[in-house]
From TrEMBL:
It comes from Tsukamurella strandjordii. Coiled coil: none annotated. Keywords: Membrane, Transmembrane, Transmembrane helix. It comes from the Bacteria. This is Integral membrane protein. The chain crosses the membrane at residues 19-37, 57-77, 89-110, 181-201, 232-251, 257-290, 297-319, 339-362, 374-395, 407-424, 431-450. InterPro entries: TAT_signal.
């Protein structure tokens, strides 16, 4: 079982270098706009670049709970992870991540939390119109994506496939309409990613590694951007799709078929929530390579295609939507946001979400011994981290994410932060948990995220 004892000196030096690179990247992305002057900063459309928000120190209703939750996980999280059964640990990790997210999200006040998804550019703005004619909304969805039409979708709806809007329409139909329920739903879905990650890691890397990961998944620094955002929901869905695929790859018989179908349906649904989640295919390939078992593709791919076919029959073709989104993206502020800055500053923003311990995990990737079987070894977790890094880089190079990636890339950064479970230098798990928690608390109390 991974212990809380310090790592060898060579590992400690490598981890320090990784954290120094992490800190230097963030510092450079923050300082450069100041040096470049007001005209350059105005083109960034992010007052607190590389993060999307403004510098405004504050405290709020979530301050005390966030500090308490962080302290409890730092002091007792590793011990609890070693003691609890894996089922209870997965459930507890999800509950803690939910409360941690909720606390960080309400540092700026409950009202901002409850109304964030109700703004004119948000999903709920379009729910009343879509609720009366869901079939028509799906059928006309791609046509309404480009801007400057009388019935153009609002920003967040136009930037995603129809599954995102449909989710909030369905919530409204079952009596969970409005900003508060939508916010709580997104946070809960995002928090469930902790359990999904533990299931995946337990299946591929072993129970001991899953136990080491649990505290880091519970106090994921990016939780600040989960509370609330649709991207938290997307991250949870994608994580469960990967968990189902891992279970399919590690099972046999009917269980393998069942989990393979579930993986295909979930991941198929995921790409109709967020176009960028097509990149989860990289993580899916990593899972199958680690397990050395491609057979789940025989059930997962047909299941995913069923989702694609269902939307096609309803009148929405994914590629049409994607092409329209590219047009819409460059009709807005992306047309003047400089990629020369955001192409690398995006990585600094993402670094704030996965934290210094996540950076140390990235630095460990070359220790993976990739030519030897990974299944059942801690190095399998490094394979997942490597896949997440590749997804992040691919999203960055697409130039369709200039700013706001601390939120948009949550489906990727949750996996990088989980990799911190393998880092044991500099005082062990408690020390790394402490820096993760401290970083999240500082950002939550200094940055006022834009509504």
């Amino acid at each position: 079982m991974p212990s809380d004892s310090p790592a060898p000196p060579a590992d400690a030096r490598r981890d320090r270098r990784s954290v120094l690179v992490w800190a230097a990247l963030i510092a450079a992305a923050a300082v450069l706009p100041i040096m470049m002057g007001k005209d350059f900063r105005d083109r960034l459309v992010a007052e607190a670049a590389p993060l999307f928000g403004r510098i405004e120190p504050h405290v709020g209703v979530g301050t005390v709970p966030a500090v308490v939750i962080g302290a409890v996980v730092v002091l007792w999280g590793p011990a609890a992870a070693r003691r609890l059964s894996l089922g209870r640990l997965a459930a507890l990790s999800t509950v803690v991540l939910f409360l941690w997210s909720l606390s960080l999200g309400t540092v700026s006040g409950w009202q901002r939390f409850a109304t964030k998804l109700t703004g004119y550019d948000q999903y709920l703005h379009e729910v009343p119109g879509a609720r009366g004619d869901v079939a028509g909304a799906v059928r006309e969805f791609a046509r309404r994506i480009p801007d400057y039409q009388p019935d153009s979708w609002t920003v967040h709806v136009s930037g995603h496939p129809p599954g995102a809007l449909l989710t909030f329409v369905w919530l409204d139909r079952i009596g969970l309409g409005g900003g508060t329920w939508a916010a709580l739903f997104c946070v809960a879905a995002g928090a469930s990613s902790a359990a999904a990650i533990l299931v995946t890691v337990r299946t591929l890397a072993g129970a001991d590694t899953a136990r080491a990961v649990a505290p880091f998944a519970a106090v994921f620094p990016g939780a600040l951007w989960m509370a609330p955002s649709g991207d938290a929901y997307f991250a949870g869905v994608a994580a469960w799709g990967i968990a189902a695929l891992a279970l399919a790859a590690a099972s046999g018989g009917r269980r393998a078929v069942g989990f393979g179908v579930a993986a295909g349906l979930i991941l198929g649904w995921a790409i109709f929530l967020n176009y960028g989640l097509i990149l989860m295919g990289v993580m899916a390939v990593a899972v199958l390579l680690i397990a050395r078992n491609p057979r789940p593709l025989l059930t997962a791919i047909p299941a995913a295609l069923l989702v694609v076919a269902a939307f096609a029959v309803a009148g929405f073709w994914w590629l049409d939507g994607y092409n329209a989104v590219v047009v819409r993206y460059y009709q807005g502020i992306a047309s003047f946001r400089p990629f020369a800055y955001w192409g690398w500053a995006n990585l600094a923003a993402a670094a704030c979400a996965f934290g210094p311990a996540g950076a140390a995990a990235i630095g460990r990737i070359r220790d993976g011994r990739w030519r030897t079987p990974l299944l059942g070894r801690p190095a399998a977790l490094l394979g997942l981290v490597a896949a997440a890094v590749l997804m992040m880089l691919a999203a960055d190079l697409s130039a369709l994410s200039k700013a706001e990636v601390e939120r948009i890339w949550l489906p990727f950064t949750v996996w990088i932060a989980a990799g911190a479970g393998l880092v044991r230098s500099g005082g062990g798990a408690r020390a790394w948990l402490a820096v993760q928690v401290a970083g999240a608390l500082v950002i939550a109390h200094v940055l006022m995220i834009y509504q």
